[in-house]
Amino acid sequence: MNDQGRKGGTTHVVIISSDKQFRQMVETTFASQLQISLDILDGDLTQIEAMPEGAAVVIVDLDASNEAQVAALSRMTSKPGSAPAVVVTQLFDETVARRLLQIRVADFLVKPVAPIELVRACARAAKKPAAGEVSAEAEIFTFLPSAGGVGVTSIAIQSALLLQGSTRGGSSTCLVDLDFQHGAVADYLDIEPRLDLSEIEPRPERLDRHLLEVMLTQHSSGLSVIAAPNRPAEMRSFDPVMVTRLLDLVSSHFRYVVIDMPRTWFPWTDSVLLGSNKLFIVSEMTIPGLRHAKKLVSAIGERLGESANPQVIVNRFESRMFAAGLSLADIQSALGGAFAGSLPNNFRVVREAIDRGIPLEEVKPGNNVVLALKKLILPAAKDAKQTGALSRLFKKAG
To answer: Looking at the domain 6-126, which fold is it?
Structure first.
């Protein structure tokens, strides 16, 4: 937290709201918090001429359907040195989620707001890492298949294992399987899927750290896994609030989050892709596969803008000097700047790892697939940490 935001051991919080009842709730809530000093501004952001100096956190009561208020919020958060904003609104849908991700608010709560949730949100937003301390903000790697059967799950798993192995001690990485219909992460790792969608979908707000720990599965490598029993005969979407809440909570407690995405586009897909530091599209080494990947890159750019920046990994690449077929130069020409790199075809090692539920390195140390993946993932992790990429999905966890 900046020095202005904390004086004499107290944290300075500013609230902007035209809702009298909400202002009274906030005033009552923070009156018992001796370590917090409070400034209350009556009105919305478009009516506030000057912000009180030295705020550590600004609570903004936002009408998300009011474009002028959203624009004012964007201007406020884009100012250098601006205090982190905790947004409270009555409206939550896909469009609101996308806008607030782009604006990069510190936290997001939906009315009616529990007083303790508001206090916790402000505490998280105001907390600044000490010198040398790693930020609590997760770095999110998302893997999206360009077509079926391209090996996206294997690549997501091995990437998560590499990230887990790149840190010392504890479970630093969580692998999340968002393919609720055909997800195979738990099967590939030979672990029990514990995410109970029927338990959390009716009331996503019940999902807290304790419930998350119950639904996490720990792999022998130390990798944490979120996966639900797949539902091959049930084709339906899930509430975007549930998916967002799940990812928010996971990203609050892990350094790295790896997401295995389904091929189908759901109402929550945009928000997940926008919230990712690194977005990889996995393709196969065929002309139709590269065409699918190129179209997907274009479609994501049209929907989400340049901030998504998808990169294509070509899986099962085979280089044959005198054989007909695609060359590396052909792939680079087809994909241009969207080409991230290729992974070699090593069917025997990959199949054995899947059948035994173990990392590729345990099957054959130093194998060519892992060596190639390290060159793609570990520099990407360093780059994600340095750039900060997008703001994470809205944290609402206790």
So the answer is: Rossmann fold (3.40.50)
Question: In which region does residue 395 sit, left (phi positive, over 0), alpha (psi from -120 to 50) or beta (all else)?
Answer: beta
Over residues 54-72, the pLDDT tens digits come to 788 899 999 988 889 888 8
Of the candidates 100, 56, 108, the residue with the CA atom closest to the CA atom of residue 82: 56
394/234 Cα distance (integer angstroms)? 29
Q: What is the CATH code for 139-387?
A: 3.40.50.300
Residue type, 243: V
Please state, in angstroms and rounded to a whole number, the distance separating the CA atoms of residues 188 and 261. Answer: 15
Does the reported pTM lie above 0.85?
A: no
Q: Are 98 and 75 in contact (CB under 8 A)?
A: no
Q: Where are the alpha helices (DSSP H) in 206-340?
A: 209-215, 240-253, 269-274, 287-304, 328-335
Which amino acid is located at 355 in the chain? D
DSSP β-ladder status, 256-260 and 10-17: unpaired
Q: Which residues contact 276 (CB under 8 A, 6 or more apart)?
A: 140, 141, 142, 259, 308, 389, 390
Token representation of residue 315? 């899986």
Q: Assess whether pLDDT exceeds 50 at residue 20.
A: yes
Show the tokens assigned to 360. Answer: 């590729």
Contacts of 7 (CB under 8 A, 6+ apart): 54
Taking only Cα atoms into account, the Rg of the chain, rounded to an integer number of angstroms, comes to 23
pLDDT of amino acid 134: 42
- 149-204 pLDDT, tens digit each: 899 999 999 999 999 988 876 678 999 999 998 899 999 999 999 998 888 878 77
Q: How far apart are CA 25 and CA 334, in angstroms?
A: 58
Ranges of each domain in the chain: 6-126, 139-387
Exposed / middle / buried, residue 79 (Cβ in 10 Å: 0-12, 13-18, 19+): exposed
315-349 pLDDT tens trace:
998 876 555 667 888 888 889 889 999 999 999 99
Three-state SS string across 89-118, please?
ECCCCHHHHHHHHHHCCCEEEECCCCHHHH
CB 243 within 8 A of CB 161: no
**Would you say the CATH fold of 139-387 matches that of 6-126?**
yes
